């Protein structure tokens, strides 16, 4: 009787813990027992897509532990607001935060942007590739131009900037690090976002290839597979038609979405602990990650039964 009761209590505890888990087991262990984000103190970190959402949240988390930051996006006004807040949080001078606006798709300017970073700080430790756009459209609705535009932003721009920075790391900073913001869509086929899903799968292909090519070098890559998060991505999300955006404001609150603050904190933990791939999401999306990776055949059979277009929108848009 005592044994049955003990097993029941233990099972209840494990179920409760799993239900409230918002990251994969390796990230959870790093959160509880690994290096804290304080270990990033003094690091010079370049964040693209830093004007809002998890990029903005990551900037604040890193500023709180004394990181020197380069903030990039296309909206200079918002970047300056973020930079001002970072200075307040970090209690350091304005020179410790460099606002560097540019369009990630303008690959011709990437070397020039890196040169500006090095002129200002004389060094770069970490590049966080966070720029990107989302999408809401069925497979049949998507025109080829939308595929191209999304890949230019989500893949080709990030990959080219990585190549530029990689050359610098190989010659001047052998301990450099890359952070890459991917998505649940990088692990499984998220419905009604085919171009977006394809772009995130492509990111995994590029960066896993780079990881292998780097071999035993100390340059590390951390890929963040992020589930639904509170952000303004919906406002500028692509549809299936070129030039047409989803629009609309992010709902005030939702049980299916992780806060940008919490998500970016877990990203910082993953960076500090050099985790290869970090899954960050609330349940049940986090469980989907595990089934998609470890039980793919079973996952493909059961997933369509409870993830139709309506439920997909509920999970992703709140």
From TrEMBL:
- Please, which domain of life does this record's source organism belong to? Eukaryota
Xref: Pfam families: adh_short
UniProt KW Oxidoreductase keyword: yes
Q: Which UniProt keywords apply?
A: Oxidoreductase
Which terms does the record give in the GO molecular function aspect? Answer: oxidoreductase activity
InterPro entries cross-referenced by the UniProt entry: NAD(P)-bd_dom_sf, Sc_DH/Rdtase_CS, SDR_fam, SDR_family_member_7
Descriptive protein name: Dehydrogenase/reductase SDR family member 7-like
Give the species: Dermatophagoides pteronyssinus
């Amino acid at each position: 009787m005592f044994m049955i009761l003990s097993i029941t209590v233990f099972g209840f505890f494990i179920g409760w813990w799993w239900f409230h888990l918002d990251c994969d087991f390796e990230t959870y262990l790093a959160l509880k027992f690994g290096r804290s984000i304080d270990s990033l103190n003094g690091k010079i970190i370049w964040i693209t897509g830093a004007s809002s959402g998890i990029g903005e949240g990551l900037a604040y988390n890193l500023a709180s532990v004394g990181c020197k930051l380069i903030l990039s996006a296309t909206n200079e006004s918002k970047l300056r607001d973020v930079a001002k807040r970072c200075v307040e949080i970090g209690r350091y001078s304005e020179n410790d935060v460099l606002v560097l606006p540019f369009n990630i798709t303008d690959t011709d300017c990437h070397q020039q942007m890196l040169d500006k970073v090095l002129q200002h700080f004389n060094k770069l430790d970490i590049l966080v590739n966070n720029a990107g756009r989302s999408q809401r459209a069925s497979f049949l609705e998507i025109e080829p131009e939308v595929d191209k535009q999304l890949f230019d932003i989500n893949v080709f721009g990030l990959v080219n900037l990585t190549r530029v920075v990689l050359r610098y790391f190989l010659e001047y900073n052998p301990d450099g690090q890359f952070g890459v913001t991917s998505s649940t869509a990088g692990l499984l086929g998220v419905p009604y976002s085919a171009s977006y899903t394809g772009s995130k799968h492509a990111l995994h292909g590029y960066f896993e290839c780079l990881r292998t090519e780097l071999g035993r070098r100390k340059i590390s890559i951390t890929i963040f597979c992020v589930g639904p998060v509170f952000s303004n991505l919906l406002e500028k999300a692509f549809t299936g038609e070129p030039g047409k955006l989803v629009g609309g404001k992010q709902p005030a609150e939702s049980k299916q979405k992780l806060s940008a603050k919490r998500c970016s904190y877990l990203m910082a933990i993953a960076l500090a602990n050099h985790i290869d791939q970090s899954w960050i999401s609330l349940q049940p999306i986090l469980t989907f990650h595990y089934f998609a990776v470890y039980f793919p055949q079973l996952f493909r059979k059961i997933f369509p039964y409870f993830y139709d277009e309506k439920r997909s929108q509920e999970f992703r848009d709140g």
